[in-house]
Design brief:
The protein is mostly helical and 113 residues long. 70% of the residues lie in helices and 0% in strands.
């Protein structure tokens, strides 16, 4: 893209991240988050949801939770997709109490599961 003087946008980065996550290359996908910000392209809610989904599918709930914290720092508010993804990840790990607690928080934030 740089050869053709084409600058990647948030959609380009999201597409790359999604593909990397689907190929179980989560670390590379997360690294793109830093790269895109260095390049002046700011992540969207979709960007975070893609990475959170990839991390949850890998079972890395700790990193997924840190990414949610990062979302708030960037001014992104979790939506139904974010909550549902996290709840699903917690259920897969057998953490039903935490999943139920997150469901309650989801409802308090007026998100429909």
């Amino acid at each position: 893209m740089p050869v053709f003087k084409s600058v990647p946008d948030v959609y380009t980065y999201c597409t790359l991240m999604d593909g990397l996550c689907k190929e179980d290359r989560i670390d590379e996908a997360v690294a793109l988050l830093d790269e895109m910000q260095i390049e002046g392209c700011f992540p969207s809610l979709v960007t975070f949801n893609i990475l959170i989904n990839g991390l949850c599918k890998k079972g890395d709930l700790a990193r997924a939770a840190k990414l949610v914290d990062n979302m708030f720092l960037k001014g992104c508010v979790p939506n139904e997709v974010t909550y549902n993804t996290l709840i699903h990840g917690l259920c897969l790990k057998g953490k039903l109490d935490k999943a139920t607690s997150l469901l309650d928080r989801m409802l308090l934030n007026k998100c429909i599961p």
